[in-house]
């Protein structure tokens, strides 16, 4: 708590005086361009990853970046999506999963959760489609690869779930909204974005420096070190 | 979207190389000290406000920083709280509201929302205690002051709601968990923290510089410019 | 049933003629001063325990004197609380648990209930906070002491749950409502009341006669006969 | 509260010493013969009305003595009924309504409740069958008579609802359980019991004294002073 207090002070001493104009302007109202849905995980900071300024990202964060299908719950996700789309008119919704996700690890051993963490257990039912897809089609994968697969498929499940919301569906129909699926690698900070045409998660731009590049785009696929190239590709084709 | 892509690239070119050690270490696991529950509003960035590093804050964000009472919903809030408390053993839970909150504005005119934004309407029922308290006790306030009041009381409502969660109640009993209520002022970046003994929202530390100080602690009360001093004090006494 | 019929007749022959004035007056309307929430247990009679006349106590009784958190159910508890606070303007709400409570015994062996008594099982989920607190913190207690602990903590859980109701929160804010936690000992008829300042359940007044007194106030703690004095004190400190 | 404290003391000074044997015996366990379901109204004291001793009546009390149909809610009513029938093996369930019931008055003007007392509104939906029956068949009655009718029909609705509970249905089938519908008159303390064969609410025994008798059994019908005899009879024939 002391460190947080020190942080608050630093923020007020350094950041605020340097951004008075921006903050004054934002006090009149926000008009973020994107709704960013990601995990509560402390290693994922949406505004840091995207270097977003105050006012740029409207953010939902929960365990597992899950969006329950419309009507399945009366929690905050649906209300916040509705507000973002209908009141703020965001142009983009990004669902961003991440490697080593604790919620996805829970999905791997869902049976143990029912008694120990009943609320987490009930919550993960909203992404049961992910669990079953991976169980049905990739049950032979090793645990680490299966986890990568769950992370990737979970992002696509939430994109589908997003489509079930009336406000989202209406805006998509109008062509005023784009949905994006991302995976963030907590180890090296790289992002993979789902490419519907190529049915694969791919780097959203040319990799900047050699330090994190292995010479070609596909090298960013999680699991590449452990999996045969073809297998890794298959994994990241996703279920679309 | 272009700006976000540029941000991703900057993050990888600048931040990542400079934080390789931290990121490698975090790849092994997270152990955040606090669960930070705040609004989806794009003008509130928890890690910026607290200058938190990767790995320090576990974060829930939804419209209005609302925590439905235990059992009232099967949304992500309860599951994420349970995970934070039982699996990550966080020591602190901070509920952080903010000035000019759109969800609280919705609460001011809840009747209009039922048809226009039904999910937001249903979501705000979880903080009906806030609406009713302000309506019953401060119906004579002007709109801006009433909004400040709603923001403050809403934070306290969520603290009450947090206490109904089994995992939270058990850890509170053990003395291993502290609950904190904060209000963030989007205009000047100042934080007020709820002080249960004084029954008031007060600055959590001495104000650093004169630029943001009016000479004494109580001056940070939202609404002070518009309200008589005594009235502002009464408002921020909260309902504890 | 014959005994009940005999009772009805006695009531009409003896009580009614002697209380004609009171009953006539009450026929015009009720204005009870307190809402008394207690268990359905046949050994707990709220009006007998408090020697309350007709018209004095508004009463909720269910298995385990449980108050589900606001929004967690659409049963009678919330509606009756709302009516008591908003329409009858009661000044006090008393939650009164009791020793040897069958519902709390059920909580001790919750696993066996799911199949055998599914409605009881689902009902006890509303006081899961009690079960978890005791399991996490007092798993080493013997069964009888654990039961005493569950009874005491259950009362405090319901006080927490009460605070989530909009009508209750608003009246608490105004200072027009007090919440009380009591434990009734079915063996000797003694009451312990929760004292928030001392964080303990204590006798609400000096014990009247030596027949039920052990010479000092703290002796009324349930479990004192079985537990070391310090242990009994620790138990009844509760989680506030 | 002072009066309650005085009552507690009187109870301990007078009642407890005179009933030590009974209380000691009951501390070993309860075996009530009947489940008594009645209103929270302060003017209705089930144990006083029936002159029941400690240990004789298992009691549910809520606003309007309503029993939601099986599956309609996860509140305390169903759980308490299940416990009474399956664990305590009660032989009788009595649903006891009463004259001038506030919940039934609410049913008369249900439209006004939705905003003012939303929880009461939602609760009364469980007895919508009562409202609709009276609206459809007795819309021409004056307000007072309609209220009497609602009270009577509400008792019968709850008897029907009781029959929807698995545990109740099974015991009824076995012949081990009887259901009773009573109406308590708060003005003169008289009880009317539903007689299924005569399709009418009638006094459960010969009226004891002339003070409360008008010379024949049917005279106890509420509304007799105001209604034609035939009309009153029709009203109290109920809907069975």
Automatic annotation (TrEMBL), chains A, B, C, D:
Q: Where is this region: Disordered?
A: 206-226
Q: Reaction(s) catalyzed by this protein?
A: hydrogencarbonate + H(+) = CO2 + H2O
* Cofactor needs: Zn(2+)
Catalytic activity, EC? 4.2.1.1
The answer to whether the entry has keyword Disulfide bond is: no
The superkingdom listed in its UniProt entry is Bacteria
Entries under SUPFAM superfamilies matching the protein: beta-carbonic anhydrase, cab (SSF53056)
Q: Which UniProt keywords apply?
A: Lyase, Metal-binding, Zinc
Q: Record's family?
A: Belongs to the beta-class carbonic anhydrase family.
Report the function annotation for this chain. Answer: Reversible hydration of carbon dioxide.
Name of this protein = Carbonic anhydrase
User: What is the source species?
Assistant: Leptothoe kymatousa TAU-MAC 1615
